[in-house]
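User
New here, help please:
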Amino acid sequence: MDLALGGAPFAELRQRAAAGLEGRVLEVGFGSGRNLAHLPAEVSLLLAVEPAAGGRRLARKRVAQSSIPVEYVGLEGESIPLEGSSVDHVLSTWTLCTIPGVEQALGEMRRVLRPGGALHFLEHGRSPESTVSKWQDRLTPLQQRLAGGCHLNRQVDELVRDAGFEIERLSTFYMRGPRLLTYMFEGRARRL
């Protein structure tokens, strides 16, 4: 995943997703730390949730080189060991597809986010084209086995709204590549 999500098009998207982050930021799905290079200087601390030991191992060098301190705070998005209203922003990039209890995880993100704070998200998900979404539905069980639980067909904007967020900015588009994998949801949502 580190290599697959590491090219120039992904860097540009990461930069946009991180724009406006400041203060204490929680990143759910920290992975190999690819977002660190794109965090604004206004971020004072990055709190990382990451279940994969391989991701943490790959992140060591990026964490060591970062001017922003990183503190690992948990393994699962469904159970974030932080007090309520304790972070200024939450960042999630290419993560909501794999979390088994995505609704619970979004509820946890909302719980730890301070009033007025924002969830910044960049995720792939369900295509609006019925021919594509039908194939996403058919292939998701196989994709889950091959790609660490990844769902091709999650309706990210609806999940975010249903968790009690108000979406203030949303862009949807296809990236280059197979339409089954590349329909993107990029946005920012405030805690209600």
Observations:
- The chain is about 30% helix and 30% strand.
- Helices lie at 8-18, 53-65, 102-112, 130-146, 156-162.
- Residues 8-191 form a domain with the Rossmann fold fold (CATH 3.40.50.150).
- The chain has one domain: 8-191.
